[in-house]
Hints:
Layout: E1 3-7, H1 11-23, E2 27-31, H2 34-44, E3 48-51, H3 60-68, H4 73-76, E4 80-84, H5 89-99, E5 101-106, H6 111-124, H7 136-171, E6 175-179, E7 185-188, H8 190-196, H9 200-203, H10 214-225, E8 232-240, E9 246-257, E10 264-273, H11 275-341, H12 346-376, E11 385-387, H13 389-400, E12 405-409, E13 417-419, H14 421-437, E14 444-452, E15 455-461, H15 469-472, H16 492-502, E16 506-511, E17 517-524, E18 547-551, H17 555-567, E19 571-575, H18 578-587, E20 594-598, H19 606-616, E21 621-626, E22 645-648, H20 653-668
Parallel strand pairs: 1-2, 1-3, 3-4, 4-5, 12-14, 18-19, 18-20, 20-21, 21-22
Antiparallel strand pairs: 6-7, 6-10, 8-9, 9-10, 11-13, 14-15, 15-17, 16-17
Helix pairs in contact: 2-3, 3-5, 5-7, 11-12, 11-17, 12-16, 13-14, 14-16, 18-19
Amino acid sequence: MATVMVVDDVAANRDIVRMLLGYRGHDVIEARDGADALRLAHVHHPDVVVSDVLMPGIDGLELVHRLRSDPDPIAAQAPVIFYTANYLEPETRPIAEACGVSQVVLRSQDPHTLLEAVDTALARGPVLLDVTPAADEEFAQAHLHAVNAKLIEKVRALHDTERRFEAMAVASPVGIGILDTHGTADYINERFAEIMQLPQDRLLGQGWLDCLDTGAQDSALSLLHGAGDAVELRFDHRITWPDGTTRRLRLHLRQIHDDDDGRLAGGVLMVDDVTDLVSAEERLREETLRRQEDARHRDAERLDSLRRMAGGTAHDFNNILGAILGYTNLAIETITDAQEDGTLPAETAESLLGDLQHVVKGGERAKGLTQQLLAFGRREIIQPVPLNLNTLLRSAAPALRETVALDLDLDPGLPDVKADPAQIEQALRSLVRNSAEAMPSGGTVTITTSVQDENVMVCVTDTGAGMPQNILDRAFEPFFSTKPAGSTAGLGLSTAHGIISQAGGQLTLRSREGQGTTATFTLPALITETPAPPPQALEPDNPGGETLLLVDDEAAVLQVTARILSGAGYDVLTAADAGEALRILEQHPGHVSALVTDVVMPGMNGRQLAKVASMRQPGLSIVFVSGFAESLIDEKGNNLEPGSTILAKPFDREALVSTVRGALNAGAHR
């Protein structure tokens, strides 16, 4: 392989030729200019010289002239190939022929053209100096002609470029500034001055810095000085025009590097007035937020309508269910008594009792369904107490782990909340069960507790399939389910939502398909209060003898409740409404110990009746019987009738009798 000397004042150009020739196995010597090339030619005697034409100092034309006149015969006979982007072959032909240049190759040609030219020069061997080199004066004249022609061409091209740049800068919709490495602007277009509302001469030099705040000015100057690795910066800035108008600017500063050696030459600054765009973006953002708020409001109204419907339906159904269960229990008692005294054959009694037990089981299932509906409707009777959710989770964890792998991540500093423990546990079971069903192939449910602002937060996260948005939007609707028909009532999430809402909190879902689901609920942290002394345990008295006034507008419920209480040994007076109850209370010759009243009744409701009755007969014990919490419990779960007793519908015999007995005992000890 041969030794090839590459002569070019641009390092990047030398690198390209060196790599290209290196693939052919040539040894490459690099020279930075003509003078360097002459020195290296004496030392290395290259087989071929590949030289640029236009170079500072000794250019390619003069290099060839001096080589051919060199007293060193080996250096003088080296073949020379011009490799240029500035001269065309016809422009250098006269002097190239006179100096024995082998070939002129343009950089725009295929790289293989240069390789072929080198191969050809090597094949021909050293240049035979059978032509007398041109005299210095003769060469100088030809050289000057070639260089001047190219310089004139370059000046014209530069002038055309400047005119095109000026035209673009004038027509540009953004401000443009050309800066040097010291941060001095030597060009500012008219749009820049228009945006800043300042004369162009005020923005030249370092006046352009007025479009940046102090911190941004330092960053911009550092970029222009070449400090750091960044090559561009973007800024947002707000300025005030002389008339008081505020404008929003976006600025883009980018470094400019020299094409020849890559050195930092300064920067270009582009300034755009985006006030209208920012205003439009803000209006769009506000409109988006408004629409989202409207959507949330519509969703809340839709859920509220569903809650009212579910709560009202459950309340009415509770009355029917209460009568069914009450009469069924009475029938069971009657059959049991008949079986015991021998008036009913044992075989017949067992058959009847078996059938009635199926009725009771069905009633209990229906009771659970109505309780879920009431919970969704936030109308279930609750008993809120101070509660630590960490303690509740640790207690419930063994049962929850029976259906799913469970991890607990509990904040040790978690404050208490005020809620009904049974209901919160029911909500947690519903959330964990829903997560388990979303992971049919197995997975882990993680429950974390934390404090956010003044709320206690609980997150239930699964690794299941997640939910698409259209399912997520309807997840809290009662009876909505994606599972096969008959497998679920679709009340799990809606019940949990109602429970958390009734406790004064919020339940939200976050889910994406393939990325699991996180259910998050928050409850207000309980403000530390001096705990009330626990109530003294009362010894239960034997029931019997007291007179009770029972009020309910549902005839079937009134009758079955009266029969249960009568069977428990009480004298029971019944009334179908509040007016009749007050007349009985006024006309009854004996003492009435307790008022047992429904709450939701036409005309005067149960709360109003209790107030009037208590005024007429002080010391009267009050027992409210209702499945409708709205009239008795406030949004924080507090009993609106302190001192009274609340019994939730539907109830069984034991619950009714023990509740009435407890109210009578409490009244007797007051």
